[in-house]
């Protein structure tokens, strides 16, 4: 079994109101998420991606269809033992310290007492939270909450990690840091499912994506495959003089190519921000 | 996600719990005299109140009693009696509430009613007597209810005797209450003398002497350390009044002066 | 074994969260202050012996505040987890729904145990101190001195803990299926009231002249709702232990425990079907 997550013909109807009018949140969705990849699940609010994730985590029952995680039924404890989850805008017990929270989650995830200390230290390290681990969660900034959430999701060394909007409300520096963590986890061979509104980040870190709209998957595939335009090419040139540009145009046109536009490449605002701002300690 | 077995387990446990509660409640119910059915029958609201209040019943009973004082001063009969009865219901182990409620109903309320109807000078004597009698009987009923909750019946019987003697003017009835009080294990020292004297005044002189003599011989002389010389003196007066020959009298006691 | 371990850790964190709540501190301090100062309210007392008044006042405070705490805290701690999505984080781990719910219950019950133990401790100290003063006066007057039974107080504390556990379990059963905190609190209070009045159905069941329909309804009511009134024997246990039939307290403990287990099983069944 090569799929980390296999969703087949998944449908979910919710009853709304006293009369129980059916509202279809997920409509015949099928997804195969290969192991070892970062998979982006995209879509507007209310498109059904969170419901799909909840079904995959066994938190909500499907009306029809099947979902398996790493070969096990999604609702089984065995599947959840091998899965880590960071919910959107996570809220944790404010009185616990970061270390206590991650230790608590490790215990619930079945980490042995003998391995506990090392596992917690490793997760805190991965999330870059070791320095703030002994502060109460109530004192954390939003970025730190996301990172401690990430630490609790990975503390039991899961094969599959599901991240629901991990960068929501986090500044670009913190968001980039989380992006780096995702890349690190991919480097460790884990499968990551990422739900995000930050399309730029998804484009950077994801290997494959699926886009959902009104409960249906409207597009899925490898990022390079779905974004590249096979009929167009981009040449990036340094030291281009007006004479050289004219010569190049002539050579390309004589070979039958059509030049659609010539412009100067721009760096993104996010890249500029990250170059100028190194980030506060809390970010 | 199913968990149908949990519902089955829950239902089974509920049935077992219900049977266990039937047994435990049967043994514990007498420990909670406040929940007396006869007290609650006149008012379902009181049953609700009792259930809601839990352990605060004594406190609410006291507050209710304080409130009844205000109405007693204003001579508002219905409200005063209702609040006094509420105090008795909430805290039935309290002798004070029963006794004072009986006093208020049996001794005071007839006077309030007479005043309300125009006063002693205007209201016919027969009606006044009827009012005194009916209120005193209500007072006696309160005492009889209260006596059921108390381990010590004698004080209730003494007050009932007083109501019968002073308000109903039925000396035989009064004597029967005093006698029952005297025969109770916790009888006060004066109960037997009250019983004998009232029956004597009612005209049952021989019966009164016979009972008093028997009671003094079997109970008072034996139970009390000083052998009740005052009661013996009362008996001697009775013997004199009945012109009894020496041989029929109580033999002279060695300690008797 | 792993299941017990997870339940224990959820209960432990729930306990730590609960004891930090202002409502707990407020009701505990107010309850302890009222129980401790109940001697000062004895001027209100008309009918009973002074110790009975002090005991009844303390027991009443314990039940009133304890029930409030049990209902509000149970609903609040469950809905805090659901509304803040911590439940999502926990239930996405290999934590069973029943483990989660039982952990929540045990955490709340442990807090209620602390509440009862502290209040009983304060009340016991007040009763014992006052009893020795009253006893000296009674002996001087040639009357039988009143007794305070410390063992009876311990049994009463256990019964109260069970009673508040039943209140918490009733609330949890409602909250497991309801959508809002407010509904859970209101419904929790109403079922607690039902438990306080269950004895009316219990008496109806034993009444000889009741009809078949009445008896059937009473039978269902006495099975569905626990009898909370049977734990209201504090004054008898503490001031007159001879008046409590032998084995009666143990019978109440048994019936309460069975009801508690039944309510928890049904609450778990409901929660397992809930969509988080």
Features:
heterotrimer, A: alpha/beta, six-stranded mixed β-sheet, four-stranded antiparallel β-sheet, C: 276 residues
Task: Walk me through what this model shows.
The complex is a heterotrimer of chains A (283), B (257) and C (276). Chain A is of the alpha/beta class. In chain A, 35% of the residues lie in helices and 24% in strands. In chain A, strands 6-7-8-3-9-10 form a six-stranded mixed beta sheet, with helices on both faces. In chain A, strands 2-1-4-5 form a four-stranded antiparallel beta sheet. Chain B has twelve helices and no strands. In chain B, helix 6 runs antiparallel to helix 7 and helix 9 runs antiparallel to helix 10. The mean pLDDT of chain B is 86. Chain C is an all-alpha fold and 276 residues long. The mean pLDDT of chain C is 89. Chain C is globular. Chain C has ten helices and no strands. The longest helix of chain C is centred in the middle third of the chain and has 44 residues. Chains B and C meet through helix 1, helix 3, helix 4 and helix 6 of B and helix 3, helix 7, helix 8 and helix 10 of C.
Q: Helices and strands in order, then pairings?
A:
The complex is a heterotrimer of chains A (283), B (257) and C (276).
Chain A: E1 3-16, E2 21-34, E3 38-42, H1 49-56, E4 64-69, E5 72-73, H2 77-81, E6 83-86, H3 98-108, H4 113-126, H5 142-154, E7 160-164, H6 172-187, E8 191-195, H7 199-205, E9 208-213, E10 216-222, H8 223-227, H9 242-254, H10 269-276
Parallel strand pairs in A: 3-8, 3-9, 6-7, 7-8
Antiparallel strand pairs in A: 1-2, 1-4, 4-5, 9-10
Chain B: H1 4-28, H2 37-40, H3 44-53, H4 57-74, H5 77-90, H6 95-116, H7 125-147, H8 154-168, H9 171-182, H10 191-201, H11 205-223, H12 229-241
Helix pairs in contact in B: 4-5, 5-6, 6-7, 6-8, 7-8, 8-9, 9-10, 10-11, 11-12
Chain C: H1 2-19, H2 22-36, H3 50-83, H4 86-91, H5 97-140, H6 150-177, H7 181-206, H8 212-224, H9 234-239, H10 248-273
């Amino acid at each position: 079994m090569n799929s980390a997550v296999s969703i087949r013909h998944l449908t979910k109807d919710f009853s709304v109101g006293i009369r129980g009018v059916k509202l279809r949140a997920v409509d015949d969705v099928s997804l195969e998420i290969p192991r070892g990849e970062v998979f982006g699940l995209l879509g507007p609010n209310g498109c059904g991606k969170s419901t799909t994730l909840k079904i995959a985590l066994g938190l909500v029952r499907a009306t029809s269809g099947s979902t398996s995680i790493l070969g096990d039924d999604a609702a089984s404890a065995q599947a959840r033992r091998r899965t880590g989850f960071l919910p959107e805008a996570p809220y944790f017990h404010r009185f616990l310290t970061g270390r206590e929270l991650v230790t608590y989650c490790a215990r619930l995830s079945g980490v042995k007492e003998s391995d506990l200390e090392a596992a917690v230290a490793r997760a805190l390290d991965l999330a870059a939270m070791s320095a703030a681990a002994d502060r109460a969660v109530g004192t954390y900034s939003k970025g730190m909450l996301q990172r401690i959430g990430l630490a609790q999701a990975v503390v039991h060394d899961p094969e599959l990690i599901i991240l629901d909007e991990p960068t929501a409300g986090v500044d670009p520096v913190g968001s980039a840091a989380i992006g780096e963590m995702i890349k690190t986890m991919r480097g460790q061979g884990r499968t990551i499912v990422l739900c995000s509104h930050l399309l730029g980040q998804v484009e950077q870190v994801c290997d494959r994506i699926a886009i959902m709209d009104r409960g249906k998957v409207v597009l899925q595939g490898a990022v390079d495959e779905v974004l590249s335009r096979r009929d167009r090419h981009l040449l990036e040139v340094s030291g281009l003089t007006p004479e050289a540009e004219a010569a190049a145009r002539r050579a390309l046109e004589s070979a039958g190519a059509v030049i659609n536009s010539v412009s100067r490449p721009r760096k993104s605002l996010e890249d500029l921000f990250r170059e100028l701002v190194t980030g506060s300690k809390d970010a | 996600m199913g968990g149908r077995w949990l519902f089955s387990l829950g239902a089974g446990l509920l049935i077992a719990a219900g049977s266990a509660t039937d047994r435990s409640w049967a043994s514990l119910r007498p420990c909670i005299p406040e929940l007396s059915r006869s007290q609650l029958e006149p008012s379902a609201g009181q049953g609700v109140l009792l259930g809601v209040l839990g352990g605060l019943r004594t406190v609410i009973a006291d507050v209710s009693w304080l409130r009844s004082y205000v109405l007693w001063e204003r001579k508002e009969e219905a409200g005063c009696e209702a609040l006094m009865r509420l105090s008795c219901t909430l805290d039935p182990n309290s002798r004070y509430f029963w006794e004072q409620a009986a006093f208020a109903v049996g001794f005071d309320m007839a006077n309030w009613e007479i005043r309300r109807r125009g006063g002693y000078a205007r209201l016919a004597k027969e009606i006044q007597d009827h009012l005194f009698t009916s209120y005193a009987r209500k007072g006696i009923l309160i005492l009889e209810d209260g006596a059921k909750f108390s381990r010590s019946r004698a004080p209730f019987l003494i007050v009932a005797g007083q109501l019968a003697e002073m308000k109903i003017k039925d000396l035989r009835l009064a004597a029967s209450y005093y006698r029952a009080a005297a025969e109770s294990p916790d009888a006060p020292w004066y109960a037997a003398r009250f019983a004998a004297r009232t029956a004597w005044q009612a005209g049952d002189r021989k019966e009164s002497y016979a009972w008093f003599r028997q009671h003094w011989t079997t109970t008072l002389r034996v139970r009390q350390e000083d052998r009740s010389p005052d009661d013996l003196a009362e008996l001697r007066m009775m013997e004199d009044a009945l012109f009894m020959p020496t041989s029929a009298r109580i033999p002279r006691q060695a300690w008797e002066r | 074994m792993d299941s017990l371990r997870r339940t224990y850790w959820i209960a432990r964190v729930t306990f730590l969260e609960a004891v930090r709540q202002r409502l707990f501190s407020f009701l505990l301090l107010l309850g302890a202050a009222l129980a401790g100062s109940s001697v000062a309210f004895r001027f209100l007392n008309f009918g009973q012996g002074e110790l009975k008044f002090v005991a009844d006042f303390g027991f009443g405070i314990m039940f009133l505040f304890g029930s409030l705490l049990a209902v509000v805290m149970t609903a609040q701690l469950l809905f805090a987890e659901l509304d803040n999505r911590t439940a999502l984080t926990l239930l996405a781990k290999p934590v069973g729904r029943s483990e989660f719910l039982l952990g929540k219950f045990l955490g709340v019950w442990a807090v209620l145990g602390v509440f009862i133990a502290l209040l009983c401790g304060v009340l016991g100290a007040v009763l014992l101190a006052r009893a020795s003063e009253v006893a000296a006066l009674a002996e001087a007057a040639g009357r039988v001195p009143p007794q305070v039974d410390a063992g009876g107080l311990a049994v009463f504390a256990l019964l109260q803990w069970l009673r508040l556990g039943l209140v918490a379990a009733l609330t949890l059963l409602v909250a497991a299926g309801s959508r809002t905190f407010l509904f859970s609190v209101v419904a929790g209070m109403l079922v607690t009231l039902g438990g306080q009045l269950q004895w009316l159905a219990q008496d109806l069941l034993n009444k000889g002249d009741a009809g078949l329909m009445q008896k059937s309804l009473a039978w269902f009511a006495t099975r569905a709702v626990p009898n909370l009134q049977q734990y209201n024997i504090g004054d008898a246990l503490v001031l007159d232990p001879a008046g409590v039939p032998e084995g009666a307290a143990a019978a109440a403990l048994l019936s309460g425990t069975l009801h508690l287990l039944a309510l928890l099983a049904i609450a778990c069944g409901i929660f397992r079907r809930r969509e988080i």
